[in-house]
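WP5 quarterly update. Target: non-specific serine/threonine protein kinase. Source organism: Arion vulgaris. Length: 88 aa.
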Amino acid sequence: PTVEDLDPDVLSTMNSLQCFKDKEKLVSELLNAKHNTEKVVYFLLLDRKLRNPSVEDDLDVRHRSESADPPRKRVDAVQFGGQARKAR
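Structure tokens (predicted):
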């Protein structure tokens, strides 16, 4: 990966945290080949951004987060032989 591949919003968020305030060191650690804390935090924040895009995010990010199978409402009923019965 290169610097251009890094998400600017995620970098900004990480840079605002006190433990990642040195931006040059942060970018260096993210581009490093070894596993490290910076990469873990970066990818967790990126995953969160992709799952819960803000209004300012690009349309392609918002469309990627829409679930093809959204969560369904929980129903407190037990199925016996294909027929629902109320749980006791």
